[in-house]
Specification:
- It is elongated and about 65 Å long.
- It has two domains: 79 residues, OB fold (Dihydrolipoamide Acetyltransferase, E2P) (Beta Barrel); 102 residues, no CATH class.
- A hairpin with a 2-residue loop joins β6 and β7.
- The protein starts with a strand and ends with a helix.
- It is of the alpha+beta class.
- The strands form two sheets. A five-stranded mixed β-barrel has the order 1-2-3-5-4. Strands 6-7-8 form a three-stranded antiparallel beta sheet.
Length: 226
């Protein structure tokens, strides 16, 4: 089986002294894994930053063996944020979410486009707020729509509008910007509460039922914001 496509690098791990195993999310094949010979060489290693966009040629003798990858750089996105720890950590966390939530060889061009859109929102002033909606969009594309608008109730507390969802054990407050999406949010604590809400949903609804550990990359990203 031989084909070529464009892709984003989701993860990499050492395979041998000179090679690595890479996971990529491709436009037409979805998530794939393969061996990159010479992946530890200085030239190729510089391309292999998590989140970079790569052209990939895939070659495999049969469908039951891991294939071999030849890659070329298309867009070196990640190095643009080497001086911005929070955004670089955001990229790593986002790619890891795509990695753990998608299945091998299941095409979803909307997920590919969503990854591409990540780099557009990172240049916006309110990038963190937009990223929270990016995570919600990813979950929705994969069949896990939080549907907050249908879950929350609205009331006034101290002359302020608040939204909350009643669960079996507690009343959970929902940050207003997740419902009133045009709100400008400057308080980092409000944005962190939005990230926590999405993270709780991710953990309880998707990760724990599938025996998947909560991603450490997302914890590191959130800690970088504090």
């Amino acid at each position: 089986m031989n084909w070529a496509d464009q892709s984003f690098l989701l993860s990499k791990s050492r395979y041998s002294e000179n090679s690595i195993i890479a996971e990529l999310y491709t436009e037409n094949k979805g998530k794939i894994s393969g061996i990159i010979f010479g992946g530890t060489s200085k030239k190729i290693k510089n391309y292999l930053q998590i989140g970079n966009k790569l052209h990939v040629n895939y070659n495999s003798k049969n469908d039951h063996r891991m294939g071999y990858l030849k890659i070329e750089i298309l867009n070196a996105y990640s190095p643009l944020y080497f001086d911005h720890k929070q955004k670089l950590s955001c990229i790593t966390s986002a790619m890891n979410l795509v990695k753990i939530l998608t299945a091998e060889l299941q095409t979803n061009e909307k997920v590919f486009l969503l990854i591409e859109n990540l780099y557009k929102l990172l240049d916006h002033k309110d990038w963190l707020k937009e990223y929270i909606f990016w995570e919600l969009d990813l979950l929705k594309l994969l069949g896990y729509d939080l549907e907050l608008e249908n879950l929350v109730e609205k009331k006034l507390e101290d002359n302020k509008t608040v939204y909350f969802a009643n669960t079996q054990n507690e009343k959970k407050y929902v940050p207003n910007f997740l419902i009133e999406k045009n709100l400008v949010v400057s308080d980092i604590n409000i944005l962190l509460s939005g990230l926590k809400l999405v993270g709780d949903f991710l953990d309880k609804t998707i990760l724990k039922p599938n025996n998947i550990n909560y991603p450490n990359s997302r914890i590191i990203f959130i800690n970088s914001l504090k």
